[in-house]
Each structure stands twice: as C-alpha cells, then as structure tokens.
Design brief:
disordered C terminus; globular; 1% strand; two-stranded antiparallel sheet; mainly alpha; 2 strands
C-alpha cells in the first residue's frame, strides 16, 4: 500500500507540473519529458516512469487552457481546440470552455488508458500492418480535411495548407540527409520548428491583430458552472466515444500522434453532428469535445507501439524510449514478458494522472480566468514576452525568435484577409510525412506504378483509407455553399 501511495504522490506531482508546462506557450510535453529524462540517471525506474506519465497526461491537457483562453495552443495537439474553445472565451464563456476541455480530456484519457490495458495486442497488430503506402494515403487524407477549417473558402484553406507543406519540407531531407529548399542558406538548412510556427501563427499574430483593431475593451469571463451540464454531457457521449476511438487508433500509428488524431476527430464531428450547440468554429461544444477527447485518447494509443514494438507513437514516446534505455530496458515484445510489472505501473500511473488532471484542472480554472480578464493593454505585453521567451527556449536561439516573428506577421496577414490558419499547421505536420512515405513507397516498389496500385488494392487498410477519402470528397461537393459548418 505504501508503494502505491508513493507512486500516486509522484504521479500527482508530475501531472501538476505537466499542466503548468503545457499551459505555457513554447513549452511542450516533449520538452518537459526530455528534461526530466536527463535527470533520471540516478532514479529508480518506477519513480522515473510515474513522474513521466504524469507529465505526459498533464501537459497534453494543459495545452488546451491557453488554446481556449488566449488562442495560443500550448501544444500542437491543442491547435484544433482553438477553433471552438477560443470563440467560447470571446463570448465570455472561458470557464465553460476549460470545463468542457477538462471533462472531455478526462473521458478520452480514461478510454485511452483502458484501451492500452485491454487492447494492446490487437491494436499493435493493426499498427504493424501499416505499409508505407497506407501512411501516405492517410497523410493525403489529412490534407483533404482542410475543408473542415475553410472559413467560407475551400480555396483559401487549401492555399494555406499547401504553403504549410512547402515550409515543412525546408531543411534536411529525411531520407538522404541533403539540404532541401535551403537555397544555400545555413539558416534554412535547420528547417522550421513546429512549435515556433505555432507560437507565431497563433500567439504573435493574435496580438498584432488585436492591436490593429485598436480595441481596449476586454471580455469579462463568466466562471459560472464549470462542470458541463449532465444532459449536454450525455448528449455528447456518443461523439466522445467515437472521437476517442479515432484518437486511440491514430495514436497507435507510429509517428502520427495527437495533432492528426484531433484533426480527424474534428472533421468527423462536423460530418456527423447534425444539430451542434452552435455552428462549428463559433463556439460549438462539440468541437472542443472532439479535439480534446481524441488528443488525450491518443496518449494510450501512442504508448502501445512503444511497449510492444519499440516504435514511438509520437515525439513524447520517442523520448520515453530514451528513459527506458537509460535504465537498461529495451521496449519491444520481450518487455511485456520479462517486466510485466512495468506495464502495470505505466497503466496505473496514466490512470492516476487522468484523475489528477481532472481535479487540478478544475481547481486552476478560476486563477486562469482571472488572468485573461485583465484589460488588453495590460495583458498583451506579457503575452508578447511569453511568446518570445517560449520561442527562444526551444533551442536557446534567436533564430527561432526570428522564425516566430515571421510566422506572426504571416498569421496577421492571414487574419486580415480571412485565410484560415489551422490548415497551415496541418500542412507543416503532414508535409514531411507525405514526402517521406511517398518516397518510401516508391523505393519499396521500385517506382513501378502497377505494383503500387496492386499493393493498394490488395491492402484492406489502403482500400479503407481510399474509401474514406472518396466519401469525404463526395460530402464536400454536396456541402451547401452557404453552410458555415
């Protein structure tokens, strides 16, 4: 009993730390876990894993706090949460927005942990069955979903997504290691950091846009009832279960992770919810439900290939593999056989962290609400300061600050001319994945289009993704021109 109390205390400390780190723009779960791993050389492996799992769960939820309140996602997986969470805050419903995010993160995280515990062997077999062409089709499908973010113009959404793809390809080639789109510049060789881009596109651009509007007014946030009404929670439960399942399946695909899971879940919500509480993009609860349940469920999914195959499901689990190696462990099929107690520890720690961030989340809502209720002329300068510091902290480089400034100005121009920003982030995430998987497909089948087509036809996974693409495209064509959904 004392052992599990000790584990619970460590997990609670890690969860609280993760929430605070996730809520600070520029600081991510990956960064927090990486720093912690470097400190665990002298720690017992159970101590290290308990704290790491707490930070992981807490940071993913923490990113939704600033996403809802100030339109700056604390993590890439929270980008989609801004679409409806921030409009809720602009209506004065910041407390309700975080309440929904916290509750849905809890449900999604709980489902993800249960899937990790019960369905690890099954989901691992599905994930290992993905061939390069399957990943390529999935990434292309993700780009096709930019129609979900089109603010009245699919063309504008596709333009920003395409620009994101091009910018995401800048830097070293993932396969050959040669510079690409660098034009002989040492600066461009380093590529574009995703977190830096997010800080500029969502943080600095929002500040510039508020200054451009020259509005000194501020919205008084209503704390009110923090926990979502039970009738609305029950009404959204079927959607929560579906989007959590999407998060688990996408999270279990190596290298994909929360951003794509939340994107697919949000698109699913727009396609299936006939009568949302409000139009999507204008503060619909269902938008927050889809994003937050999916990106937290993806945590359990991402750990599955890490434990069973030794392949990271996302950036954080890649760092966690380093923690295993530091302590002389090798994630993979033998880990489950040789050290089953570590699997139980991970499941219990994640389960505890899920309950802890529900408690801490609701306790921290009022302090955060008071923070964003400060008038803009007082609030905006600290936001600029935190954004700059967050960009600099990524690599301790002024180059990242310059990139952040560039994306901030670009995002400001997009806002002026009503170009949607989330598709660009989607392009930055999917661009390298599309490039790598396309070339791996070409290498695997020696560039023979007949062989590639045959592999797609012979693969149930490929056919399923192609069918989803066809249905999505058909629904886009049928979408009424005056629809805001």
């Amino acid at each position: 009993m004392e052992y599990w109390i000790y584990i619970a205390a460590l997990t609670a400390a890690g969860t609280l730390t993760g929430i605070l780190v996730g809520a600070i723009p520029g600081l991510s779960a990956t960064m927090a876990v990486a720093i912690l791993v470097s400190l665990t050389y002298g720690w017992d492996v159970t101590t290290a894993l308990a704290v790491i799992m707490g930070i992981y769960q807490g940071a993913v939820f923490g990113g939704s706090i600033t996403a809802c309140l100030i339109n700056i996602p604390g993590a890439p997986s929270s980008v989609i949460t801004t679409l409806d969470g921030y409009p809720m805050a602009k209506r004065g419903e910041g407390g309700a927005a975080i309440g929904w995010a916290c509750t849905e993160s809890f449900i999604g995280g709980l489902i993800g942990v249960l899937a990790l515990w019960i369905g690890t062997p099954l989901i691992a077999r599905v994930a290992v069955g993905f061939a390069p062409q399957d990943y390529f089709l999935l990434a292309v499908f993700g780009i096709l979903l930019v129609g979900s973010f089109a603010e009245g113009s699919f063309g504008k959404a596709m333009f920003t997504a395409s620009l994101g793809v091009v910018l995401g390809l800048i830097g070293l080639d993932l396969i050959t290691g040669m510079p690409r789109l660098a034009f002989g510049s040492d600066i461009l060789v380093k590529g574009v950091d995703l977190v830096t881009a997010i800080l500029g596109l969502f943080g600095l651009s929002e500040v510039l846009f508020q200054l451009y509007q020259n509005s000194s007014a501020h919205i008084i946030q209503k704390v009110g009832r923090l926990f979502p009404p039970m009738n609305q929670l029950i009404r959204c439960l079927p959607l929560t279960l579906r989007t959590s399942a999407i998060g688990i399946l996408i999270g279990a695909l190596p290298g994909v992770g929360g951003p794509i899971a939340s994107t697919l879940a949000y698109d699913h919500a727009k396609r299936t919810v006939r009568e949302p509480s409000r139009p999507f993009g204008e503060g619909a609860y269902e938008g927050v439900v889809a994003s937050e349940s999916a990106n937290n469920a993806a945590i359990g999914g991402a750990i599955i290939p890490m434990l069973t195959l030794g392949i990271p499901g996302d950036a954080v689990t890649a760092v966690i593999i380093g923690a295993f190696q530091i302590h002389g462990l090798r994630p993979g099929p033998m880990l489950m056989t040789e050290t089953p107690h570590l699997f139980n520890l991970i499941v219990v720690s994640l389960l505890l962290a899920t309950f802890f961030f529900l408690i801490f989340g609701f306790l921290l809502i009022k302090p955060f609400i008071k923070l964003v209720s400060i008038p803009q002329n007082i609030l905006l300068p600290p936001i600029i300061f935190v954004t700059v510091i967050g960009a600099y902290a990524i690599n301790s480089s002024m180059l990242d600050v310059a990139w952040m400034s560039f994306f901030g100005l670009l995002g400001f121009v997009f806002k002026l001319y009503k170009f949607p920003i989330p598709p660009m982030v989607l392009g930055l995430v999917l661009g390298p994945l599309i490039d790598e998987t396309f070339r791996r497909t070409m290498i695997s089948y020696h560039g023979n289009p007949i062989d590639i087509l045959g592999a797609i036809v012979a693969s149930p996974i490929s056919l399923s993704v192609v069918a989803l693409m066809g249905v999505t495209f058909f629904l886009m064509l049928r979408k009424p021109r005056n629809s805001k959904a």
